Fold:
Amino acid sequence: MSVHKKICPVPFDQQPLNEYKALRSSPLFASSAVEMPKFVVRLSFIFLGITILCCLVNLISLGNAKISVNTIGYSTLCSLLSIDLLLIRLYLGWSYVLKRLFSASIFYEESGWYDGQLWIKTVDILTQDRLVGLYQVQPLLGRIRKLLIIISLASIILIILLFFSSG
Structure:
């Protein structure tokens, strides 16, 4: 639901609730808004796909005789770091929208970077935005943060294992 022009001078695309809806409808961010098990399964498919792709590239470039456990470990590390980057992107996008939803005032641009304005939300709009932020966006951020910590720790452990096995 967009805010009427008389109440809110902010352009439609820059209104926090509309930014939330646009982010939620984009394919990348919509996949993070599903239930936790489905999200983990999707991340697992991405992880497996990148791992297989990296192993195939290594197989083609190195040949069959030079593939080792370290090579597979580095392919797995590449996949973990790719998942880390994906989760960081999701976290930054959702946290930006959350900041805009929780903020009592909104900075917006009317026609370009040179003519920015500041609009203070009405009580009704602020309440609605904060409820959406509290019950829709914050749980997503918490889930993404937990997964980011787990994947980052797995990456660090794998880096340490690969460092000591190649030395």
